[in-house]
Amino acid sequence: MTGIRGTIRAVFFDLGSTLIHFTGSWAEVLPASNRALGAALLESGLRLDLPVFQAEFSRRMEAYFARREDDCLEYTTESVLRRLLEDHGYPDVPATVLQAALARMYAVSQAHWQPEQDALPTLKKLTGAGYRIGLISNASDAADVHALIDKAQLRPWLEAIVISAEVGLRKPSPRIYEIALNALDMLPAQTVMVGDTLSADVAGAHAAGLRAVWIARRVDTPENHALADQLQPDAILARLDELPPLLERWNATPA
């Protein structure tokens, strides 16, 4: 726990498995996404050995995912794809071609993300109570995040949106929290982070001086299990709609 107490005036949310949840099977969605990417690149005029290219793209993305967890830096899927195409003899593919191909790829997984039933009611209640609302999302493609935000109809409630692919940093880096705080002109003691990941959302928030609320309904992951005995959120909630009364109690308690 942070030990910091003050009147909470702003709430930052994580996106995936917090405001929205995945309803598909990644074992099926990832290969389908890869095929969609390959088809889009072929349609753009590139001549590729698709089985070889797709296998190498998957391998490089896995290596990238592992590396970014160590250094908290975000290099984007587009940069990985561009370097791979350079290695396959295409050094000057226009950004518009890459972005269109990635949009085709991410559309496959976007179809399986749905908003939590209590997400919009909770955001509406918090906004009505005067809280300022923002989003901090770890993601390697900003356009994908923006598409998911719009699909879930979250944008009207989000005053600030900070995406790792746009700022080059990932949670739990304290710097991405500083960027988010500056976007709302808030101090750490006035702000709480709400998310599902102990390392990114709880440890990261605490390192930046924010309180952290762990939403525990979709936290059955190896990463969370590994840290469950090491990290202590300021509160653990089963549902988002438990958040407004929690903040009301916190703000009613003298510092």
Task: Kindly summarize this structure in a few lines.
With 255 residues, the chain is of the alpha/beta class. It has helices at residues 26-43, 50-71, 77-87, 95-110, 119-128, 142-151, 164-167, 174-184, 198-207, 222-227, 243-252, and strands at residues 10-13, 20-22, 113-115, 132-137, 160-163, 191-195, 211-215, 235-237.
* Shape estimate: elongated
Strand arrangement, largest sheet? Answer: 5-4-1-6-7-8
State the CATH class of the largest domain: Alpha Beta
Tell me the number of helical segments per DSSP (H or I, 4 or more residues long): 11
Work out the count of structural domains. Answer: 2
Care to describe what's here?
The protein is of the alpha/beta class and 255 residues long. It folds into two domains: 10-23 and 114-252, 3-Layer(aba) Sandwich (Rossmann fold), CATH 3.40.50; 26-110. Helices cover 50% and strands 13% of the residues. The chain has helices spanning 26-43, 50-71, 77-87, 95-110, 119-128, 142-151, 164-167, 174-184, 198-207, 222-227, 243-252, and strands at 10-13, 20-22, 113-115, 132-137, 160-163, 191-195, 211-215, 235-237. The strands form two sheets. A six-stranded parallel beta sheet has the order 5-4-1-6-7-8, sandwiched between helices. Helix 1 runs antiparallel to helix 4 (95-110) and helix 2 (50-71) crosses helix 3 (77-87). The longest helix is centred in the first third of the chain and has 22 residues, at 50-71. The chain starts with 9 loop residues before the first strand and ends with a helix. The model has no long low-confidence stretch (mean pLDDT 94).
